[in-house]
Each structure stands twice: as structure tokens, then as C-alpha cells.
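Researcher: Batch entry, complex prediction.
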Amino acid sequence: MGELMIGLYVFVLAVMVGFEVITKVPPTLHTPLMSGANAISGIAVIGALVVAAQAGETTGQVLGVAAIVMAMVNVVGGFMVTDRMLEMFKPGQKK
Amino acid sequence: MNPDTLLQLVYLLSATLFVFGLKRLGSPATARQGNRMAALAMLIAIVATLVEQEILNWQLIALGIILGSLAGAIAARTVKMTDMPQMVGIFNGLGGGASGVVAAAEFFRLGGGDLGVEAGITILLSTLIGTVTLSGSFIAFGKLQRFISGAPLTFPFSRTLNAVLFAAILVIAAMQVTGEATVTMYLVLTGLALLLGILLVTPIGGADMPVVISLLNSYSGLAASAAGFVLGNMILIISGALVGAAGLILTNLMCKAMNRSLANVAFGAFGAADSTGGRITPGEGKTVRDVDAEQAAMVLAYAQSVIVVPGYGLAVAQAQHDIRKLSDLLQERGVTVKFAIHPVAGRMPGHMNVLLAEADVPYTQLFDLDEINDEFSTTDVALIVGANDVVNPDARDPSSVIAGMPILDVDRARNVIVMKRSLSPGFAGIDNPLFYLDRTMMFFGDAKGSMVDLVRETKEV
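Model: C-alpha cells for the complex:
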């Protein structure tokens, strides 16, 4: 079984895990969930690091660094803004 | 242990933490911890990658990391909560774009030529999804930020054009996979994908943005997965798949809340109805009961139970804090106050909840449609602020444009107070019979000013 095929298995199973884990999220948390998930999609930074590290010539280096910048904005911004939102969510206390 | 095995084990740990993090994001009590867990997972994966790679030019990489982190941190600290959808839109675009650029870097590293089927398909797919996410997200951002018109922009044959464009992309991709791949063809494909992303989002109206943002969120995950296939990297595949699934679930929820199919949103049926349907004159020949702040305050203050229905108009007017003051005042008088949040009350899923949380309304006071709809019939006052279509009883009429759309049953409350600028229709472009009911009181004015008056009058009751 080739790498592509293994990747496909992993992909399908991970999608199912995603459905299972996320289905029961209450509407109150939909925005933080989306921005948190969004930050996770910045995982592309790993790919960016790999291509930037291996790049010997200019084209590869420029593309690699561009990808790092874009993905890092996504990662750092995404997690921080999610934290900022979640900080505001407070349960009510009886007055 | 061989370094690659170690790296893979670290990635596996990081993937596990992502799953637990997402799980914890599902409950208000643990959400913050969940988000931090996911952030930690990301940090571990990044550090492990940097340690394992033999880096040719570490200064450049460090520069990229610092620049990106700074920009992200500044944006996250300064963004207003009302602008959250734009922010998530931009982040989606950048994440998706990064995946596309990774694929491009891989294409240039291989130097084109005979890519082979496996590398060819994965690189081109990753480029396509990443690029469409990038340009689509920026159009969505532009619409939400009002750099470009929020109205659906359609022109004749736009669907045909999209289909042709998509077919052209497939043909070029097939030629590249089966034959010689050239840089020119690759760039043409990227350009066409950029154009496709733009054309897919421009026909969609501002009111449908919750769906678009959710869908693009899903795409940004799929783009990361695709980049994972390009590099044979499991952590990218897994994380991307998780985000793809999350985005799809939210997209589906939003479509249900608007009673539309995804295809219907994509082809902008509401927009089309707007331009072809005749102009309506709201309120013609019907009478409304007009009240002022003092009268409205009396009704609220002497009620036992009040359900507030906030719409996006409230957020636009920045009246969230005033409504929280009103809610506190009423609660001090012993009135039960609840907030009923329609799924599309904001510009992205759950947006209204965040805006009210920012104004210190506890989340235990917020209820979604299914939880609260049965309670309206036993409630003294439904107070509607800046909402329209989501409380239109016509949705129960099978012949209405919005037939079947889930609505909040405010017309079943004993009294209804509607705070609104005028009788003008909402996004659906239809009149709202709620305004003319005997039990409905219209309190005209802009949400901010009226709410300030209402708070003052309630204090004096």
C-alpha cells in the first residue's frame, strides 16, 4: 500500500472523528469553535517550514517564507482571538 | 530512536491534542482550556519540525515566523467583536493560501516536467483548493467590510462561466498530470483558480455570509489536508480533515437555519428574487400601534417574563451594552429575562452570542431556537431589537418566499415590542405581518438611541 493510500485512510477516518467530536457543540460556541478550528487549519505552517527549509533556490525560498508568514498569521491570530472571545463567556450567577 | 520516528510520534501526540482540544471547545466551561490545548499542539508540532529539519536558511524562516506571529497577534488584539466574521474570513484565506503556496513551492522544487500521477494530482488539487479559498475569502472579507457591495453581484451566464472555468481547470490539470507539466500552464491554472474563487463568492449576498464563511472554513481545512498529501505529512492530513469536518457541520447548520440548500445559497436565489419581484410598500392600508420609550418601559417593568430577541441591527448600532443594562434593571425588579438567539442573528454562526458575551450577558441567559420556542406562549413580553425576517410569522405560510424558514415564535407571546427604525423589509424583501398584530407595539427609532431611552425610562418606573 502506497503512501497516498495510507494518507487517504487517515484522511477519511480523521473526517469521521471530526464529525463525531464537533456535532454536539452548542450554538453559543459556534464562533469560537470556528475561529479555533480556523487556527488549526494554520497547520499548513508545518508544510511551509518543510519546503522553506529544503529550498535551495530563490523561488522556493520566497514561496516558503510567504507560506510561513501567511500560516503564522492564521495560527497566532486564530488562537489568540479565540482565547479573547472565550475569556468573555461567563456563566450567570444568581444576583 | 531514528529522528523521523521521533518526529512522527510527536506529530501523533499533537494530532491527539487537537482532537481533545476540539472536544473541549464544545462546552462553555472547558472551551478556553480546549483552545489552549490546540495551541499547545500547534507549538509542539512547529518546534519538532524545526528541530528535525536540516535548515538551509534559518534567518529567513525566523523572519517569516516573527512577521506572521506579530501581524496575527496585533490583528487578534485589536479586532472589534462585530468585525469577527471578516477576521475569520481573512484568516481562512491566509491559511488556505499558505497551503496553496506550499504546493506551488513543491511544484517548482520538482521543476515541472513529468510529475507522475501521484505528485501531479496532489500538487494540482492542493493548488486549486488553496487558491480558491484565498481569493474567495478575500471577496467575502471585502463584502463584510463593505469595501465592495454586499449585494449579490450577478451577470448573465455567470453560472455557465463558472462551469466553463472549472472545466478549463480540469483540462489543464489533466494535461499536466498525463503529459509534460510546464511552469506557464501551472501559472495559468493558478490564475484561473483565483478567478474561480472570486466568481464563486461575488454572487452571494451579505445575508448569506454565515454560510460562505463556514464553507470557506471547511475549504481551508481541506487545503491543509491536500498540502499534507503533497508532502506525505500525516499531521497536515489529520488536522486539515478535522477542520474540514467542523466547517461542513457549521455550513450545514447555517443552511438549515435559513431553510436553504447549499446550492441555493451558492446561486443566490434571494438576490434574484429581490431584483425580479415587484417593490413592496410595507404597511400600506394597515395600522400599527406606535409606542414611545415610556410606554414600552411600563410594559416591560410590569411583566413577569421577558424574552429579548436581538438581531444584527442591535450589533450594528452597538447597543449590546445598553440591552444588558435593561436586562439587569428588569431582573432587579424580579422580571425573568431570557435572550432568544436565532442561528443567523449575526454574520457568522454564533456571532450574536459572542457580541452579548462581550457586553457581559452570561451565556446561561442565552437560548437557541429549539430551546426557547415553546416558551413564547407563556411569556408576557417578547422584545425584538433589530431583527425582522427571523420573527416573520409568514414563514409558516407555505406560499411565502420564506416558507419553512425556522423562526422564533414571538407572535405567540402575550405582548410584542418591536424596536426598529421603520417598517422596511429585511433581507428577504417581504413585509412582516407581525408588525400589524393587535398585540404588537412598534417602538420606532435607531436601536442605540431607543435603547438608551428605554433604560432611562425603566429606571424611573
